Structures
1.
Amino acid sequence: MLSVRNWLAPALLAGLGAAPVWLGCAHPICRAMAILALLVLVFWVAWHRSQVHKLRQWFASPDNVLPPPASGQWEEIFSLGYRWRKGEEQQRQQLNEAMSQFREAIDILPDVLLLLDPAGQILWANRACARLLGLRWPTDRGQPLSYLVRNPRFLAFFEAGAPGTIQLPAPALPERTLEGNRYMLPNGHSLMVFRDISRLLQLEQVRRDFVANVSHELRSPLTVVSGFIETLQDTPGCGNDEALGYLQLMAQQTARMQDLVDDLLTLARLEAGAPPQPGEAVCPAGLVEQTLSAMQEQVQSKQLRLSTDLDRALCLQAHSLDITSIVRNLIENAVKYTPAGERIHVVWRRQGEEAVFIVEDTGEGIPPEHLHRLTERFYRVDKGRSRASGGTGLGLSIVKHAAARYDGRLELESAPGRGSRFSVHFPAQRLGQA
Ligand code: ADP
């Protein structure tokens, strides 16, 4: 800004001009000098004020970057202002270019991106919102998303206001399925991403159908083969000891294949979707006792110490096949993988609002690096051992899917050398009376 020197010159001039008057000089020349000095001061102040006004107006007009003509020190001030404004303008242009490149990039994305304010109103959307959600952009800017996407499940998810994932039919293309993901931003805004997952679901269905069909097709020939093996084994004088040994091996392998096919079909059934409503009252306590009595021979031969804590009155509203799969697979695993002389404890009881089915053993346990993969199909900690003990590698996967059908969850805890604990938790709304 203006330095003190610029103010001093006219002030001194005015002071000197008016000095004779202050000193008592009443001569007309003294008076004329004083008046002249005052006029110079007034003119000087008025000129500077007009320059400041010009500067203000120039800054206030965004389109006019070039500075107005000026002289003296004001020329220097305007040229400084010009350099600053040019820099600002360049930065603005660069920002605009970056923004439009960013917009173009996300506009060609096949996924829908929506930025929502804390009230759920659309602040911003990309072009795919028209194709998949049927939104009109930018007409729908500022509209609450819940007014535009009216699917009841989506509305419940949206009103919950929490991050998460939901599947829904595409409002603008009902034959397509969308997966919506909500991400919360620190300022209370949220980002919604909708992805067309129809192709993924279709491939998943093809895989499921393929496995189910192959398993189904294998079932009949396997039944025929195992039937003939049994007949041959029972036929007196059919071959020597060696031939009988081969038949025994064939019978074992056929039974293994039948187990595998049965497990694959069970998984296919569980994956096919929700069970038909309303189900029946299934009491796991009875299923545990049946399973344990069917496995009595193995339990005794390994001298396993069994204990139970079963609430007989506690039942589930479910389908018996599903709960049998859970009970049988977990108990069979405990018996298979627990060394002789160790303990197995089976529990079915209430735990708070929930009900929980627990199978605990003091066996060799599972190293922690395997725990998160145990429910994958065909995942085994020790392949050779699992096969030798007749495992198909599908047991825990079946348990997980069967539990999920009733909004239940499978939890695993295990420590090498100390044993394992598998628990299936069922929510209160699935509990029923015997
Ligand atoms: P499998 O038919 O091989 O038993 P599962 O899916 O039932 O297949 O189990 C997967 C793997 O988890 C098993 O191969 C075994 O290594 C491990 N496992 C399951 N239950 C137990 C248990 N109670 N103790 C130790 N390991 C277990």
2.
Amino acid sequence: MARTSRLSGLRSLAPAERRAAVAAELGIGTDDLAAFLGGGIDLPQADRMVEHAIGTIGIPVGVATNLIVDGREVLVPMATEEPSVIAAASNVARMTRATGGFTTTTTGPLMQAQVQLLGVADVHAARARILEREAEVLELANAQDPRLVEHGGGARRVDVRIIHGRDRTHLVAHLVVDVRDAMGANAVNSMAEATAPLLASIAEGRHLLRILTNKADLRLARARVRIRPDDIGGPEVVANMLEAGALAHDDPYRAATHNKGIMNGVTAVVLATGNDTRAVEAGAHAHAARDGQYRSLSTWERDADGSLSATLELPMPVGLVGGATRSHPAAQAAVRMLEVTTADELARIVVSVGLAQNIGAVRALSAEGIQRGHMGLHARNVAVSAGASADEVDALAARIVAAGAVRADVAERELAALRASR
Ligand code: MEV
């Protein structure tokens, strides 16, 4: 276990030195993190993963420091192309250390598959008939995945929903399945396909769609954290953050951006571990709209001592077995770095990073504004786009920032000036 995630000074190290520092902290060999080099997979591996493969695309992986989740120090690999994200998560995680970091809960790994039933004359009676034969449906579902059942998982329950829609009434059966350490899509989809004919015959209709729902609201992960006012910029910053949080609850236009900030952290960890980023994103946004209006996923309050008291809850359908998490060497290295052995532990870390990311973004917006922190790194990207060579990037980025406008035309002008001065 990492003795501490408080690795200060990483910024001034070269990437190879950072890998060595992280490996030393985790007590593993630097070779264990070598999979992060060169994109993590070779072409033959890519070719086995998708159809018509022609190559791979590299995304930077950085390490978020300072995080404590349920008392455990965690070093978090984050895959993202966006500057400032990893720094912001690390920065907020540092602010939370004085109060013990993040505390999490989960509901357990329950995924749901839907079976759409059509042509049913008596939907209420059909619902009753299906529920009468629940045991038979569950037995058939579980016969599809004996290994899952051996590991303590399996189909647990059948729900039947009657939905009164725009121009018709729908009948949909849900299989609720404990998928243990899998993301679970394959397991529940197979069960839905296998049980659909039985469900249709009980309903005296026919079946159509047989697929999981990404509104994975029985598989929630929650994190909470407190930050003392002095650690986050003072009482005025906390007050401004509460104003920002209130707008994100009430206004969908702000909520979408607020939640995007959360997903900056969530998606980066989900991607680094080879999990399905779209599944997690679909679940998050469905959860944000669960009361009929799209709202912020997090809540912010001031506790009795004046500290910022923040929570985040969202569906977290991530797994450790199957899929790219098993087959992608960089994802395996990410899992090793996180020192997680269950999907549940991974979910707890992801939701904590999401909350840290959210607080970091809105803290910056409520204090100095987002651009100051963003611009240093953005300037480096603009410098590279303007044609700066590796030994010119830092000097050009500094000139662009000093010029007060991080733009392509300014970068080109300053690059010419830099070259003339050398
Ligand atoms: C940028 O990627 C994310 C933010 O827009 C999030 C927010 O506004 O809360 C900064």
